[in-house]
Structures are given as C-alpha cells and as structure tokens.
Amino acid sequence: MKIYTRTGDDGSTGLFGGGRVRKSDPRIECYGTIDELNASIGLAAAALVGSASADALGDWLRQIQHELFNIGSHLATPAESPSAAKLPPLDEMMVGRLEMQMDQADEHLAKLRQFILPAGGEAACRLHLARTICRRAERRIVAFAMDRPVPHVIVTYLNRLSDWLFVMARLANQRAGVEDVPWKK
To answer: Of 51, 63, 94, 122, whose CB neighbour count within 10 A is largest?
Structure first.
C-alpha cells in the first residue's frame, strides 16, 4: 500500500466513514490540531527517555497519545456516518484519571505562589508547548461544536489535559532538579 493516494491534490480530504471535505474545513482543523498535539506529546515523551521522569510519566503520555487518536477518530467522523457506531468509546473515566494523576503529582510539588513562565528543562518546555497546543485544540473544537455535534467529554478532556500538562511540566522540572521560572512583572 502506498502512502500517497493523490486524491487530496485538489485540496479535499476524505472523512472516516466516507465523504470528502475541503482541507480548510473546520472539522479538519480540529482533528489536525489534535494530531499536532499528539505529535508534541510524543516529542515530550522522547525528551523523558533516560530521565528521572521517564517512569510513570512516560507511560501516562503514551496512554494520552492513544486517547488523542481516539478523539481524532471521533472528530473525523460525521455523526450521521454509519462508521460512528464503530468508534472507540470515550468516557469521563479518562478525565477522572487525569485528575487523579495531577493530585498525585501535586503532592510532590511546591505550592504555586505566583505565575511561572513556560520554561525550565527540555522535557518541561516540551510539555508546556504541548499544553499551548492543547488549549488551541480546545478553542477550535469549542467553536466547531457550536453548530455540529461533538461529544462533550472531548472538550472536558482537553480542558483537563491542558492542566495536566502544566502540572507534569512542573514535575519534570522538579525531577530534573530545575526550578520553575517565576514571572517578573
């Protein structure tokens, strides 16, 4: 099987379950941003290899990558498509797991007394970058959901994931022996 199909040379792309739309369609922007987020999380996970943060955090990042692929499949499938019934399930347990992991990490972190910059060690910086991409994905999907059906758990998950990425960036800094960088006015 070849990777290239040439079917998108006219500026259109196929949706999961059939149908074609312009590559500029808001649906494509939504799941394209999820794909970008997923790639940035993979880059953050790569920065953890061999570090003190590679243990559970690396496993958690891989799990999130799978969940983002599932979210992308939901966004790539119109609700009226017969393929919608075959999509992997999304549920609130994903959100609860992120909250539990943040609570566990927070137990080891100093309380924040001021805003911090998205800075520090390489892994933390990559996690902060993933956080900003996550926020953009959330904004795009919220706008998309104004006139098209989107499972609410997707928006909730992305909102929580951006918080999770912030906390894990702080944890990666702490484990690397790097201080958070306070914002100076």
So the answer is: 94
The two counts, helices (H) then strands (E), for the chain are 5, 2
In the numeric block, which tokens belong to residue 181? 């960088």
CA angle 14/20/26 to nearest 5° reads 90
Amino acid type, 21:
V
DSSP string across 129-152: HHHHHHHHHHHHHHHHTTTS---H
Torsion-angle region of residue 6: left (phi > 0), alpha (psi -120 to 50) or beta? Answer: left
DSSP state of 160: H
119: amino acid identity, one letter? A
Instruction: Express each pLDDT in 139-165 by its tens digit.
Output: 999 999 999 999 999 999 999 999 999
- Radius of gyration (C-alpha) of the chain in whole angstroms: 18
Quickly list H helices, 52-121: 56-75, 93-106
